[in-house]
């Protein structure tokens, strides 16, 4: 698509300033621009896939060629507008999150998933952003993405200068840590490119040391098959017995490597109501979530990323956490009896996947 007359007459520095201001106006917290060249990142991806570290995420293998080059994903792309959006709701407290992880009757849902599905929130705002750009510079080619296509989002954001890749493989930023979502607009307009930022992890290995399953096998190396976020969300099968105790009371995702990271002392809360926790997911007990029927699960998680895993995986995860509660000396006998009864009652109608995990919870040696 030929460039519009509007674009050719715009001052680049003024356009870049306008893009940043408009991004903030639409609820984004950072914006940087990069080209489409991913360099050695594509080789590292191929090595990671060849080692099978993606587990059951076959879609990563299936579309590996598209991930290697945004121009293959959207022909004509010459720039990628990368944005961040903070997701911590007001009142977030990392000390309280650690305390909840130590409380065996609590059900811990990853902080990012307690509100509305970020895919919908970012996609809509990215679309609005693209339309605003079109009004500013004239017609141009674009597509918006947020964790919804074969795109190396973290690598593009790193290359654009939104932060550096931490040893846990997440993007880190000096101003806001790592508690943000990423979004992209692939465009066919040669916008000015931003520079990369320096790395600031130094000799710190806190994220590696704290990982409950030692999924961070070396700096910048993650084995998804060991990661609790993968096990509780992406994994469609039984959770390997070797990792069940390490899951503790984490029933959807895991935040440990972010909670421990020194840079997250700068983590910022969001002003967007979309990410406010819903249905008490920041304080819910295992028994409360276990009591939900499938209809209640569907209704209460409507518009939530959690709904994607389905009721069976949800119950699978809860059953493991309840089994860990039964093994905890910190839980009173009365509470344990309530959990045993709930699990036994649930066994009657459980499918094969959930039944396996209930039986393990009631009798870990089976």
Q: What this model shows, in words?
A:
The protein has 2 domains: 5-90 and 114-187, no CATH class; 206-267 and 276-362, no CATH class. Helices cover 43% and strands 11% of the residues. The protein has helices at 5-9, 12-25, 41-50, 58-62, 64-67, 70-73, 94-101, 118-137, 153-160, 206-210, 228-234, 241-247, 256-259, 286-290, 294-300, 310-326, 333-347, 352-362, and strands at residues 30-34, 79-86, 108-109, 142-145, 164-165, 171-172, 180-187, 216-218, 221-222, 250-252. A 4-stranded antiparallel sheet has the order 1-2-7-4, with helices on both faces. The longest helix has 20 residues, at 118-137. The relative contact order is 0.15.
Write a brief structural summary:
The chain is α+β, with helices and mostly antiparallel strands and 366 residues long.
> Could you give a short account of the major beta sheet?
4 strands, antiparallel
Enumerate the strands of the largest sheet in spatial order, edge to edge or round the barrel: 1-2-7-4
**Proportion of β residues?**
5-15%
| SS-derived structural category | alpha+beta
Helix content: 40-55%
Shape: elongated
Write down how many β-strands occur, each being a DSSP E stretch of 2 or more residues. Answer: 10
């Amino acid at each position: 698509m030929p460039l519009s007359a509007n674009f050719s007459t715009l001052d680049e520095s003024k356009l870049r300033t306008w893009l940043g201001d408009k991004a903030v106006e639409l609820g984004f917290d950072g914006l940087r621009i990069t080209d489409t060249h991913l360099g050695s990142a594509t080789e590292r991806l191929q090595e990671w896939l060849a080692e099978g570290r993606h587990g059951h995420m076959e879609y990563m293998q299936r579309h590996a060629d598209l991930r290697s080059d945004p121009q293959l994903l959207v022909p004509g792309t010459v720039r990628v507008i990368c944005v961040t959006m903070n997701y911590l709701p007001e009142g977030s407290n990392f000390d309280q999150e650690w305390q909840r992880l130590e409380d065996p009757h609590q059900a811990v849902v990853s902080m990012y998933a307690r509100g509305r599905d970020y895919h919908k929130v970012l996609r809509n705002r990215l679309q609005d952003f693209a339309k605003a750009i079109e009004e500013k510079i004239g017609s141009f080619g674009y597509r918006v993405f947020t964790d919804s296509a074969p795109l190396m989002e973290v690598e593009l954001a790193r290359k654009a200068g939104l932060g550096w890749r931490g040893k846990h493989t997440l993007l880190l930023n000096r101003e806001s840590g790592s508690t943000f979502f990423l979004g992209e607009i692939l465009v066919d307009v040669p916008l000015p490119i931003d520079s990369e930022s320096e790395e600031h992890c130094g000799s710190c290995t806190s994220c590696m040391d704290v990982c409950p399953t030692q999924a961070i096998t070396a700096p910048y190396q993650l084995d998804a098959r060991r990661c609790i976020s993968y096990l509780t969300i992406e994994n469609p099968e039984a959770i390997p017995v070797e990792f069940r105790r390490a899951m503790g009371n984490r029933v959807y995702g895991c935040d440990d490597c972010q909670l421990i990271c020194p840079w997250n002392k700068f983590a910022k809360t969001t002003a967007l109501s979309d990410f406010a926790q819903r249905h008490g997911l920041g304080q819910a007990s295992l028994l409360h979530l276990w009591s939900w029927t499938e209809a209640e699960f569907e209704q209460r998680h409507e518009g939530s990323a959690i709904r994607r895993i389905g009721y069976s995986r949800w119950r699978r995860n809860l059953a493991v956490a309840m089994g860990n509660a039964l093994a905890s000396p910190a839980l009173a006998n009365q509470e344990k009896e309530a959990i045993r009864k709930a699990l036994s009652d649930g066994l009657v109608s459980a499918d094969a996947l959930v039944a396996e995990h209930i039986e393990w919870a009631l009798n870990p040696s089976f």
